[in-house]
Design brief:
The protein is an all-alpha fold. 71% of the residues lie in helices and 0% in strands. It starts with a helix and ends in a 15-residue tail after the last helix.
Length: 127
């Protein structure tokens, strides 16, 4: 299981580092999108909403790659992954396979550090 965790952590880190840096450096060519997806992503781009998202991706990726604060990195990536899944499920189904791979890698890592995240699922906290 340890080898699986290291591979999942490394792959997830590399994926988010690549796509996070691509948000700033634009080294992966992309064709313009049309329809609802184009309008949605265009609005996110014009409003600069994607800048902090790409920054969170890069920071989380570096944390995963250096194997420090992995639970924090997973917590930061969780809502980003949910949004990626929703966009690819509802508007851009061509990217759904990679989104599912990223989700599976996140789940493998989550299961390996779930004890560190146990406090997040407490129903009540003493005041």
């Amino acid at each position: 299981m340890k080898t699986t965790t290291v591979i999942a952590r490394s792959l997830l880190g590399l994926i988010f580092l690549t796509f996070g840096l691509n948000g700033f450096l634009h080294f992966i060519p992309a064709s313009p999108l049309s329809g609802t997806a184009g309008q949605f992503l265009g609005a996110l781009f014009v409003s600069h909403y994607l800048v902090p998202i790409f920054l969170l991706q890069v920071i989380s990726a570096v944390l995963l790659l250096v194997n420090r604060y992995v639970p924090l990195a997973l917590t930061l990536l969780a809502p980003i992954i949910v949004n990626i899944l929703l966009v690819h499920t509802l508007m851009l189904p061509s990217g759904l396979p990679l989104a599912l791979v990223v989700t599976a890698l996140w789940i493998v890592l989550f299961l390996s550090v779930r004890s560190a995240l146990a406090g997040l699922s407490q129903q009540r906290v003493a005041a």
